[in-house]
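Forwarding the complex inputs:
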Amino acid sequence: ETGVTQTPRHLVMGMTNKKSLKCEQHLGHNAMYWYKQSAKKPLELMFVYSLEERVENNSVPSRFSPECPNSSHLFLHLHTLQPEDSALYLCASSHPGTGDTEAFFGQGTRLTVV
Amino acid sequence: SQQGEEDPQALSIQEGENATMNCSYKTSINNLQWYRQNSGRGLVHLILIRSNEREKHSGRLRVTLDTSKKSSSLLITASRAADTASYFCATDTGGFKTIFGAGTRLFVKA
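Prediction (whole assembly, two chains):
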């Protein structure tokens, strides 16, 4: 248990569906991240929020829409996805500025787009 | 191109042997971190080494960092079947960018 919780753990959705991924951390961290992990590829940083403001958006298609209502919660809203968006989506949190910037990851949401 | 690249991509050893994984990177870093991931799960932080450190130990883990060569190695001594996982290096270049490599898949045979 890393202190970062993601729900759901598994999600199957059609290309016309709208769904949301949720991430929650109670570690007192002030930065939260969404990563995408596809088979045999490096982790891709999608979005970074610091103090509830988006500070990084790495050219992610608009069909992925993040939301950070407070420092403990992060959402990833999904709509009109493509089969190639099937992947493991990982949320992480950290506390930059404290020197050691290790990230704490959730267990991930395994997303399958059909 | 990615910042961190692990080598080898896959490694298979017998229980009790040592496992060495290498990581190379391209730009200056604040620190370098190693993570472990069991199949289909989240990543777990193992160890962090700062740019002014050369070696660090944690239990059966030994990490080295050579900033002149922009490389790091992770050594797992006396490996166990439970060490079977993917191992990633990640470089912190400042700001909010921690860049991960593609990982080394380690398989330890009992």
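The interface with chain A takes residues 2, 4, 30-31, 33, 35, 40-45, 48, 88, 90, 92, 95-103 of chain B (CB under 8 Å).
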